[in-house]
Amino acid sequence: MVVLVLEGALPMDVGIPAEVFHPETGFGYEVSACGVSAGTVPSHGGFGFTVPRGLDALAEADTIIVPGYAPAGRPVPAQVLEALRSAASRGARIASICYGAFALAEAGLLDGLSATTHWDAADKLAQRHPQITVEPNVLFVDEGSVLTSAGAAAGLDLCLHMVRRDLGVSAANEIARGLVTAPYRAGGQAQYLPKSTSAGQGESLAATREWAMTRLDEQITVAGLAAHARMSPRTFLRRFTEETGSTPLQWVLRARVDTARELLESTRLPVDRIAEEVGLGTGSNLRLHFRRLLDVSPTEYRATFAGRS
């Protein structure tokens, strides 16, 4: 894995993949940095990054991450764009954090796809590249071999998502615990709350989500969640959707599937028993949602990820 550090790089964006994929996590990732050429790359805020290699490193990488750089949309050297296109053509996975999406867009890697960037540059990205479906209010977008994330901390969500894809939920959770961060925020979760919703109101639903997580094996309704949050169902539904980017029942379903993923990785419980444990009732129901959300069966998932953590 190679982190491509461009002039004006945002220090936090560079540090996120370095921390998540660091070999000391014990999960087999190897991460290095490169620039247009080896040497010191000036970054945003007066810092500088010393990178050991130039663009030749991209020719060998299975995954390339392009952190954000300022100002948003600064022109990218032509040789960088060509190196990104070449890597994509041979099947490398390419991801961007924050304004890094502009480099992917200039290289043509986002044409015909959905993508995101920091919300304050989403309009600029859409105007410059109308062939891209820009999602201005999500944390990250996964288009398979090309992934994009919103600003700063959303890059952490994207990198943990990539770990989940590669190694499963347990590995991502372990890395998240080491970084003292939430192990899972769905890509569709809002980047920020609308101005009509105060920060205090947004935080007030965290306790209700935690409450629901301890009761996944029980029947969970919008009315029950609203009662716990001490809101009317209508108000709760609106605020929950604003805060998470999904309806309460969609969120509960995803939480149940993710909990089932952890049990498939870490136990030998039968699929029917896991379905009961997470509140999905029957094995056939669990298989249905697994196939719809993850495009694999529980048995296939277990064969791939069991014991990886």
TrEMBL record:
Domain (HTH araC/xylS-type): residue spans on this chain: 206-304
DNA repair is among the record's keywords: no
CDD domains associated with the record: GATase1_AraC_1
UniProt cross-references to InterPro entries, sorted A to Z: Class_I_gatase-like, DJ-1/PfpI, Homeodomain-like_sf, HTH_AraC, HTH_AraC-typ_CS, INH-QAR
Keyword set, alphabetical order: DNA-binding, Transcription, Transcription regulation
Keyword presence, Secreted: no
Taxonomy, superkingdom: Bacteria
Species per Swiss-Prot/TrEMBL record: Mycolicibacterium confluentis
Protein name: AraC family transcriptional regulator
A single MF term (Gene Ontology): sequence-specific DNA binding
